[in-house]
Amino acid sequence: MADPKGFLKIERIENRYRPVVERVRDYHEVEAQLPSDMRQYQVARCMDCGVPFCHWACPVGSLIPEWQDKTRTGDWQGAYEILQKTNNFPEFTGRLCPAPCEYGCVLGINDDPVTIRENELSVIDRAFHEGWVKPRPPKTRTGKRVAVIGSGPAGMACADSLNKFGHSVVLFEAADRVGGYLRYGVPDFKLEKTVIDRRVDLMRAEGVIVKTGVKVGVEIPTAQIMDEFDAVCVAIGAREPRDLNIPGRELDGIHFAMAYLEQSNRIVAGDVIPPDDRIDAKGKHVIVLGGGDTGSDCIGTANRQGAASVTQIELFPEFPRKRPASHPWPLFPRMYKTTSSHEEGCKRLFSVNTKEFFGSKKGKRVKKLSAVRLDWEKGSTNGRFEMAEIPGSEFELKADLVLLSLGFVHVEQQGLVYEMGLELDERNNIKVDDHLMTSVDGVFSAGDADRGASLVVWAIAEGRKAAEGIHAYLQD
Fold first, then answer.
1. Whole-model pTM above 0.70?
2. Is residue 304 classed as helix, strand or coil in its secondary structure?
3. Distance CA 97, CA 455 (A)
């Protein structure tokens, strides 16, 4: 039983970041966890509500009051056993999830919510440290073979869950290392890649066969995959980036954010990138177009590379600092967010539309951009906010390196999706039914490929759901 007055006696204390002057010199994780005794105080703030909306708000349905109470009493191993029942990879969500559970915390109605994400991270990291996370291969095999294509969090969760059901799973990854967006989209200062490696090693020890550097549809024909496996899960993400088609877009020095982050992550991993091919922010005036976590990751990376300045331009207005009336508790609100990367140095501009890129007179490299400030007003007919340029508000900015962090429009349709004949939905992602089966019998999809670009916790949830759908399909 939780301490019914814990939230009254204990204030919320969050993890601290390492000092800026220290962390911008390396790519180690910026977040420093609280000591175990202080963490137990934090979990004691959980009220064990009659209706735990944190559980409702969590896409994987984490049994939050239960494992937090185990942590409070010092039963860390018991907390881990409960935590891993609903989440294959708490070490990922504990580092990267924006914690919709905390916005659904009942305590958050009129007080600071429980530090659920940080509590989760402390439990899983302790479990690894103490050796409680061990290979648990299935005792029996079903004789069914399943191919999972794509090794991001959705593909990994699907493969891991299917293997636990006793099916023989082959996880295909087109890149040279497992992890998808986690590997090459998230910088090490948020997720050190040893965290991914230890989980992949565990999955291999439990029987999952991992094949990297294999692009299905190229190295292996899709027809061969369909013939050799009893079921298939397509978890290739939504990698088609949103572009900005304005004058000057063709200039050198303008890159998609993912290309920039992948290259940086490869360099941190020890890969050799020829100097002429490097996208380097050192000594440059860097412009990041677009907000969100990817834009923030670009800021942190540029600062570590020694940028002369970093400016983030956001098309939309600045979000409110407190929960808006349009997103009441327990909904996940859109609020102003300051990340560790913003704290390291960045100028932020809101309600600004980029109009044109300009290059040097002699070269083809970007040197500046022009932009205009916007006014957002609610339309009289449809009620939606519409942007209008403010006359006379035009301005220019130095821009030696421009990073487009404008999101992703949909799954890449050429190649695998086209060759398999998978039907698309109205958003041009893979169309699935309630069990995540596609229009092709025996072929399922999970994560961003069918959902659209979303959170890591949603990817894990969809991977688990696809595995359940495949398991039921294989029973027929």
1. yes
2. helix
3. 7
Q: What is the CATH number of domain 243-406?
A: 3.50.50.60
Q: Quick one: CATH architecture of 6-130?
A: Orthogonal Bundle (1.10)
**From CA 292, how far away is CA 353, in angstroms rounded?**
16
Q: DSSP letter string over 137-164?
A: --SS--S-EEEEE--SHHHHHHHHHHHH
pLDDT of 437-456, one tens digit each? 999 999 999 999 999 999 99
Query: Helix, strand or coil for residue 466?
Result: helix
Nearest in space to 466 (alpha carbons), one of 420, 441, 433, 428: 433
CA–CA gap between residue 377 and residue 101 (Å, rounded): 32
For domain 145-239+409-475, give the fold.
Answer: FAD/NAD(P)-binding domain (3.50.50)
- Cα–Cα distance measured from residue 389 to residue 315, given in angstroms and rounded to the nearest whole number: 11
Sequence-distant (≥ 6) Cβ neighbours of residue 332 within 8 angstroms: 57, 98, 100, 103, 104
Q: How far apart (Å, rounded) are the C-alpha atoms in residues 399 and 286? A: 6
Residue 318 has pLDDT above 70, yes or no: yes
Same fold, 145-239+409-475 and 243-406: yes
